[in-house]
Each structure stands twice: as C-alpha cells, then as structure tokens.
Fold each of these.
Amino acid sequence: MNYWLFKTEPDTFSIDDLINRPEQTEPWEGVRNYQARNFLRDEVAEGDHVFIYHSSCKLVGIAGIATVVRAGYADESQFDPDSAYYDPKADRDDPRWFRVDVKFKEKFARVLPLKTIKQMPDITNIGLVKKGHRLSIMPVDQQEWKTLSDAARQT
DNA sequence: GCCAACGTTGGC
DNA sequence: GCCAACGTTGGC
C-alpha cells in the first residue's frame, strides 16, 4: 500500500465537494503533467491512501484523507471538446491522460497549514517542502504520512 | 497581482 | 538535440 498527496483548488473542487458526491466518490481528472500522469497510470493502486491538499486559496494545506477505489484508467475529459481539459492530440486507442477514482475517508477538524508542515523538523522529504513542489500528484513516504496525519488530528 | 520556478513548444 | 520563448503553477 502506498501514500500520496493530490492537490486541488478548493474553489474548483474541495474536500467538502468530495463529501457531497454520490458514494462520496469522484474521478480525479484533469491532471495534465507527464510526471503526475505516470504516477496515476503506473503506480497509484486501489486501496492507496491520499492526502487531499488545498492549493491557491486562503487556507493552503492538507484538508483530509481519501482512499483510491479504482486504479488508473483513461481520463474521459481528454476526449471531450467541451471540457476545459480537452486534448485534441489525445488518441482513444492510446490515451495520453489518466485518472483514478477516490472516495472520501476523513476530513480534519482543521486544515494542516503548509506553513506548519514546513516548520515540522521530521518533514523533509515530501515534495511540498522540496524544490519541484509544483507537482499535483506526489508520493508521500509512510513515516511522513503518519507524522502529518497525527499532527492534523491533534488540533 | 506579482513573480520564481518550473514545464512545454518549436525553430533551427 | 539545443535552447529561447512562452505558458503555467502556486505561495504570498
């Protein structure tokens, strides 16, 4: 089992939106970065745990946890000319972009702020605090997952 | 809205 | 295959 962090802009899709979805489940689509795509296609597996991270907003940080309920499959939005994520070069027989389905698991009483995460001495490896922090899908190692989720539940 | 830190595109 | 120009991300 692996651990991940998925970024989302809460103005577009927040953890509360996930809670309000049917089955509290949502296809995580619109990822248009090759490195992130490779994670979704090759490594994110059913049963993996995911931090839901709110970016580009007032309260930047980790908002809660979701579980992967379906591993990587073609992101339909790449074929939809009406979608903001439409990719005219995408080929149905050889999809370029992938998505996974995630299901809500836990919402923290408070968002664990990025500022706090950066100040935690044991958190040195997560992509958020390193260079190249712009990746929208990133792995989290088990140790840091535990440290971060414990910290988020303490407040 | 600014701007640093990326990633992508395309001419050569 | 290089790299300048351009576009995007995301914290502040």
Amino acid sequence: MFPADLPEPAELEQRYPERQLPAGALVTRIGPSPTGWLHIGALYVAMINRDIAHRTGGRYLLRIEDTDQARELAGAVDQFQRAFDYFGLPADEFDGVGDYGPYKQSEREAIYLTYARELLREGKAYLCFATEDELADIRRRQDASKIPPGYYGGWAIWRDRDDADVQAKLDEGAPYVIRFRSPGEVNGRAVFTDAIRGRLEHEDNRNDVVIVKSSANAVRLPTYHFAHAVDDHLMRVNLVIRAEEWISSVPTHLQLFAALGFEQPTYAHIAPLMKQISGGKRKLSKRKDPEASVDFYVAEGYPAAAMLYYLRGLANGRLAELPLAEALEAPIELAEFGVAGPLVDLVKLDDISADHIATLSGPEILAAVRVWAADHDADLVPVIDANPELALAALAVEREGVENPRKDLRKWSDFRTAYGFFFPELFTLVTADDERIQGVDPALIRAFAADFVAGYQHLDDGQEWFGQIRDLATKHGFAPNAKEYKKNPDAYPGSIREASQIIRVALTGSTRSPDLFAVARTLGADEVLRRVGAVAG
RNA sequence: AGCGCGUUGGUCUAACGGUAGGGCACCGGUCUCUCAAAUCGGUGGCACGGGUUCGACUCCCGUACGCGCUACCA
C-alpha cells in the first residue's frame, strides 16, 4: 500500500525544521492552481501575502497546487511566473529555490503518504472503497429525506468495516481513497478567530473528507484540505491569507491540524474581487470575464505600479488616499481590510494608470512601450526602433516643460492610437472629402489647404505659427471665433475652429489631437507640407 | 435546502452612539484651434422593519437581497 522507503513523520520534522526568524515574522504563501491562467484575485492575494511577510521579516512562498491533474492546463505554471515577474512580485521560495521544497504538490507524494499512513496507523483515517455510484446513491437518499448530505456517521459505509472486508477489497485490487475519520458531531459548532473578521462560528465538519485521492491514479495526491495541513505545517507557514470562500472549510482544517498534531496557523480570509453586472455584482469568473485574467492587464499594457497601487487601495482604503509612491511603500494591514467584496473598476484603474504614466518621462514611457510592444504589438517595434528621436519628440509634446502633462496614455497599448500618427509609416494621408472634416465644402478645403502649403512658414513661435491659420481663415471667409459664427451662421463657411480642424485632420488624421503647433514642429516642415498638400489634392 | 460571509450615492471608501465627508464616474461653468489636462461648481447614499437610547449609519433582533461552501475542484 505504501512504498517501503517512505519516511517517518519525525524524519520530515527534522528535514523541515522550524525557521530561524525574528519574533513576529510571518511566513505566508500563495498557492495557485494551474487549472487556468492566473486570476486577478490570485495576484491580489499574492501581493498581500508578500507584503505582510516581508514587512514582518518573514518569508513568502509560491507553492504550485497541482493536485487536480485532470483539469491541469499546460503552460499555466510558466504563465504564473511571467505574471508575477511583470508585477514585480517574485517569491522568496518556489520550485527549485528554498529549503522547504519541493514547492510543487505533485512532487510531494511521499510526504503526503507519510502522514496519511500515520493517521491510518492511529485509526484517524481509513480506507474507503465506495464507488462513484455508491456515493451518488448515498447522496440521492439523503436528498430525498432532506438529511444533510455527506459521507459521515451511518452513511460512511467504510468507516467501521471489518479488517477482513478491507483486506478482501485490497486483494482484488479495488481502488480506494483515504478518508479522514472526522471527530465532528452532527450538531457541533466550531469557533475560531480570523485575523480580519474576528470571532467566527460555523457548523462543525462531520464529513469523513477524502484526504488522499484514488489509488488508481499514477501519483497518489492529496486533496486541498490535507495538502494545506501538511504543506503549511512543514513549510512552517504561520499566516494563511486566502479568499473568504475557504471560511466554510476552516472547521475541517482545524480537525486535520489537531489530528496531525500540528500547530494551527492564523487565518485571514479576505473578500473576493467582484465584477459589476446589470443589477448586481458577482465573483469575477475566469471563464466569462477577460478582465479576470492577469493576462488581460499585461496584454493591455497597464503599468505594474498602477495595478499594484489600485489593488493596494482595494485592500486598505487608506492606501488609496496616499500618493502612488507612498502607497506602494506603506504596509498593508490585516486589520484595515474591508469585509465586503469590492468591484474591479476598470475606469478607476484607467484613471490611476493615466495619472501614473503622466508622472513618467518620455524616455521612460518609450522604453516601457517598446517592451510591451515586443510581446503584444510586434508591428510597432520596428517603427519605434527606426525613429527613436521622433518617438521621443512625439512623447514630449505637451508633456515636457509643461505644468500639467497630457494624460492621454492609460496603458501602453494606447500609444499607437495616441501617437501613431507622428510616424509616417503609420499615417495614411487625408484627402479633402474625408468625413472627419465635416461641414465644410471640399472645394473650400482644397483651396484652404493649397493656400496653406503655398505660404507655409515653419515658425518656432506658437502664436505666430497659428497666426498663419488665423490669417488664412479670414482670407477664406471663416468667422474669427465661434461666437461670431454662431451669431450669423449663414454668413460664414465656419469659424476659426472649423478652419483649424482642416489642418488638424490633415496633420493627425483625427479630430482630436495635441496642440497643433507642437505637432507641426515635431513633424517637421517637409512632413507638414506633405500632409496638408495631400488635402490640397 | 442547510450553514457561513456581507449590505454607506453608479463605484471605492471615511465618520468616540451626536451636522453622513472624500476619490473616481457623471452633469455644468471657466480656459480654448479640437481633445486631454487644469480649475470652479453640481446631482446623488446609510437595503427594509422592529428594539435599546435623550439621540442609531453605528448596538441588538428579524426580513430582503447579494456572494460563498455543502466534490477524489482548488
């Protein structure tokens, strides 16, 4: 039933001794399951765990909880690594690094079996040969008579079987699971303390939960509950921060820790991240919501600092009131957690992110965009690489030397739409009948543009430069300002506003753009003439 | 169904049992060649019902609603 060379618990206790850490040091962990891409909630919990461990002089571990081999997704572990790297949240110990490994549950089979065998020896666990059909039948009968469901008491058909029955099944090679013999009573209550919520009371666990999955599997793996007890004890984790959906299983965990003779960790259950839906909110779903995946934020190009700042603000409201740099340094306090699940608000994230990017210099932004584009917009890379000076000049427009820099970049993927027009390779010339120049007769547009080209002076004073448009507008009959035009709309083809739009669309291909003079200076005289010339026809 | 967790404007959050305040969003003004920004102002909230109290967002009970757990998923 067990390998001959299985270690004894005492040997494991020796191999994974208590950590030598300063008093009050907290050892925490994140245990993502590679059954899907990393969830934004996992990133949130990872950040919290890491922050608290490091602030107290403890350790933060990354443990891959791959005990559900049927649902495992290839490549998920690598994606975890990339995601944690992107957000600057590396673990102190993880697969291959650290004295308390392996940090992959699928490689800890012997460790789990050691403790399972021990519980078996002590009569605190037993072999269960119940088939799927039998379990379904038990469930059906319980449902029918409105009895609380579960494998317990008289329903636990293998709980108190004769050794002979067990041996017979073993002899015929029937697969079995190992179940915990729960000491819980039917109407028992469990009371425990949560570091965030205080005293919690819950129906006690009475189920003889499975602790080791079917012997028919190639690798004998534990269920979450058993792995949690064994791993967190052996890895000397003393603070378990996890999502609140685990509150219901704390009684089970407490029983397991007690049966194994382990000291129980402190629990802190945090509220899950939610998503707004019409008429309410629900937990972010990995399958339905793209923004549930960390990949979404990486692909969109949200700066890591902005994400972390946003997430910290959700964890502790106080941190949302602090400036970014300060909030990133300030400690996250368990006592300050809200208990209701906050909504992930992409609009708020955008705002934070735009504010943050506005504090960056052009070269910093360009470097980040370049890194982002390499993975997510390959066509943009050669364009940037061919014109680094132009890229920097474009980013400098209304950003450098001004009091309030433009906030037109919320994420790196915005660069193409906001600044792409500066690059001739990404710009499509505009013609006079373009729908973006609305309300003005194409013939007039052509004449206006032609005049502009004919007399263009690449002046370096903003007022003087714009004076060219002003003069031309007057010459072609445009009203000097919007007010005049509004007063007497039939007398003019438009106002200075409409006239400016001709040049704006010609130069930028958009009705909205940064300051025209700055754009023109950045583009250079030749390019300005080429673009306006195209409108002239 | 049972058990648990929760509920302050649209959203994130403050407020010894004593005038419900701020951020984002939204709306409007200013600025202006457009947009963004900036700045000024505005709309909007204690889920409901009882109880305790001189006084309840706050404490207690109930109801409703939301979320979760009741797996050889985590």
